[in-house]
TrEMBL record:
GO BP term, example: carbohydrate metabolic process
InterPro entries: CBD2, CBM2/CBM3_carb-bd_dom_sf, CBM2_carb-bd_dom_sf, Kinase-like_dom_sf, Prot_kinase_dom, Ser/Thr_kinase_AS
Keywords: ATP-binding, Kinase, Membrane, Nucleotide-binding, Serine/threonine-protein kinase, Transferase, Transmembrane, Transmembrane helix
Superkingdom field: Bacteria
Low complexity bias (residue ranges): 310-334
Enzyme class: transferase
Keyword Transcription regulation belongs to the record: no
Domain Protein kinase residues, every copy: 17-325
Protein name listed in UniProt: non-specific serine/threonine protein kinase
Region described as Disordered: spans on this chain: 310-341
Amino acid sequence: MSAPPEPEPGTVLDGRYRLDEILDNGGMATVWRAADLVLERAVAVKVPRGSTGGLRREAKAAAALTHPHITAVYDYGEAVVADVGRVPYVVMELLRGETLAARLARGPLPWREAAAVGARLADALAAAHAAGVVHRDVKPANVFLTPGGVKVLDFGIAFTRRGPESGPVWGTPAYVAPEAVEGAEPAPSADVYSLGVVLREALTDPDAPGELLALCDRCTDRRPATRPDAVRVAEALGRAAGVPVGVAAVHQPSAPGPGGAAPPRNLTRILLEDPARESGRRRAWLVAGAFVAGAALLAALLLWRAADPPRRPAAAPTAPTAPTAPTASATSTAPSPPPGECLVEYRVTNRWPDGFQAEVAVVNLGDAPVDGWRLSWEFGRGEQITQLWEGAHRQRGRAVTVDAPGYDPRIPPGDAARFGFLGRGEAADRPEAFTLNGSGCRAG
């Protein structure tokens, strides 16, 4: 039997999504690099092969989740294409990087790096479990390493207790929990088993602490009831790696004020992906993730490919410091960078009648970390922030202050903190001056 016809490059789905090139051509679906012709951005479009029920289930599972380490779904539709027929599709966040499987194929990870990846993977699974969703296919090929962090991919066979579309018991055999093989109903403990197998593959550094290897053993215990939950795994790995964990705060959109125009549909949140910072040549992969949008907040993420911020030469490796305790905002005792030791990159990335969106990167050019950062500026035309994410803000007249999010308050030397917002009014291209914890910053 011949394979069903598939769309050709250049096909436009529903007058909006132009398929440009194939990124991944797997057995279950084809993932395309595509262009959103309405919002003028690069996206990824997933088109199934054969049965289409799983694709819709994937989009539904994604819509229940909101987490910085879960990939975003923007849209689901079914287009009619000449000579092909009905084409269901999911529009997703476009990612740059490689899978954990590809990274491990090149050699072992240092144990702290492996623990940090595991902490963020466990953190994402904890958020899914809290929403009643079990991934069911946790494996290195579904963990994507981007310059901006870890992303969990492919909820295509996810199980949710909120609907009848649970599907059969599937998964990749090497990572499936014993009870799942025997036909038990999918449960969070089965994802933890798979997580333990992934950790065991990643933690091959001979210097890895024994407690981390013992954690792998507890995760892969044949008795589901004795396994730790994903929250505890994330906390243990986060402490070992010196990285913060915990579901990030999600800011609900503000209603537009009198006379204010609402932003276009499907424009409610932006993810600012850190640009690649690699010495030497390395192939960049554009790969689509598989999900998350949050029923109340996420319908779209815009990929920002800013130029690399200036960086100082890397210092000799040192043991990671323990993460600072999360706080809701910076305090008056937060250290101030010396004048000129910070750079603010401010970009207006979209405009519509009486509204706009902007993205901001705060770059630490100093030799010491900035903890509990607070950025201030004044708008030039009386703009008003209506929604901000990856931080908390206050505004009085033209004066704006943005505080670090409690889950990620530190800017290491040579690194950047990023946030984005929606605004009302006619946006100037960039405010004239910025201050970070009371000291002036260069504007770039």
